[in-house]
Design brief:
92 residues; mainly alpha; 0% strand
């Protein structure tokens, strides 16, 4: 079996076949050190980049929902909290 220089071998971090620099961003098609084009075996495909972008957007939306629901549930002040508690006690 032949190996392609710079290809992922399952466990090792990918490296630029031109300069040996460790690749940290597989979305970018060039080596961040020497600027050489990276082989397709290292760089994410357009479909993979799209899937990553969609997943990141979904995580950001979910995080924003959790933050806004936590803010909405928190009284604006101690006075608001006391009024809410008193209203709860006085209603049948």
């Amino acid at each position: 079996m032949t190996t392609i220089p710079g290809a992922l071998d399952g466990g090792a971090a990918p490296r630029c076949p031109e300069c040996g620099f460790q690749i940290f961003n597989r979305r970018y098609p060039k080596c961040e050190s020497c600027g050489a084009l990276l082989p397709e075996t290292i760089v994410y495909s357009p479909a993979e980049r799209h899937a990553l972008r969609v997943a990141e957007e979904e995580r950001a939306l979910e995080s924003a929902r959790h933050e806004s629901s936590a803010v909405d549930a928190t009284p604006a002040s101690l006075d608001d909290a006391l009024v809410s508690a008193m209203m709860g006690l006085t209603q049948p």
